[in-house]
Design goal:
- By secondary structure, the chain is an all-alpha fold.
- The protein has one domain: Tetracycline Repressor, domain 2.
- Helices cover about 70% and strands about 0% of the residues.
- The protein is built from ten helices and no strands.
- Helix 1 packs across helix 2, helix 7 crosses helix 8 and helix 9 packs across helix 10.
- It starts with 10 loop residues before the first helix and ends in a 7-residue tail after the last helix.
- This is Putative Transcriptional regulator, TetR family.
- Keywords: DNA-binding, Transcription, Transcription regulation.
- Pfam families: TetR_C_14 (PF17754), TetR_N (PF00440).
- One of its GO terms (molecular function) is transcription cis-regulatory region binding.
Length: about 200
């Protein structure tokens, strides 16, 4: 059995995602420019152009705003995977789903550079980012089984293949960020997948 869903993000959902992004960027900017004590909920809200009350509609605390954790991120990752054509193999589907995720995430190259700099200064902040991304990767791997109707308790192949692909893609993304987003992320992903034998070499 193959499971496929279609994506339909409405204007309200997009606006919500944009506001969350603005709050996250504001928090990162404040920490990038100063110290942790400079990052207050009032300062974040003011820089993002919203009220402190609105802040709490998106994040429970400033630490969450710094990590940018989106409660919809895991569900969206799963949806992206299940929306891939049923004819695609697992690696192709993971690649396509990840590129869809990146089209939502990599919309602010300067923010990614600031996040990288802040992560180097504050390792505890980096741990939060890694944890959030791990949940999204887990959702994609589980969806790899779901879209094929496979039981992960008896068939490890879809999930193992998905995680192998995700590991290569993570390396490509780290390289892309280190390079200042120069070049094509798609080409970097293809090269990384090819390096571990999961994609044809150019």
């Amino acid at each position: 059995m193959t499971t496929v869903i279609t994506l339909d993000e409405g204007l309200r959902a997009r606006k919500k995602r944009e506001t969350r992004h603005a709050l996250h960027r504001a928090a990162i900017e404040l920490l990038h420019e100063g110290d942790f004590c400079d990052v207050t909920i009032e300062a974040i809200a003011a820089r993002a152009g919203v009220s402190p009350r609105t802040f709490f509609n998106y994040f429970p605390a400033k630490e969450a705003a710094l990590s940018g954790t989106d409660p919809d991120m895991v569900a969206r990752a799963r949806e992206f995977m299940l929306a891939r054509p049923a004819t695609e193999d697992t690696v192709t589907a993971v690649r396509g789903a990840t590129l869809e995720r990146l089209r939502e995430l990599v919309v602010d190259a300067e923010l990614w550079q600031m996040r990288r700099a802040v992560s180097q200064r504050h390792p505890e902040f980096a741990a939060g980012l890694v944890g959030a991304n791990a949940l999204a990767e887990k959702a994609i791997a589980q969806a790899a089984c779901e879209r094929l109707g496979a039981d992960p308790l008896t068939d490890v192949t879809p999930m193992a293949t998905a995680y192998a692909a995700l590991g290569a893609i993570r390396a490509a993304l780290q390289q892309h960020v280190s390079a200042g987003f120069a070049g094509s992320i798609e080409e970097r992903i293809d090269a990384a997948l090819a390096a571990v034998g999961l994609w044809p070499r150019p």
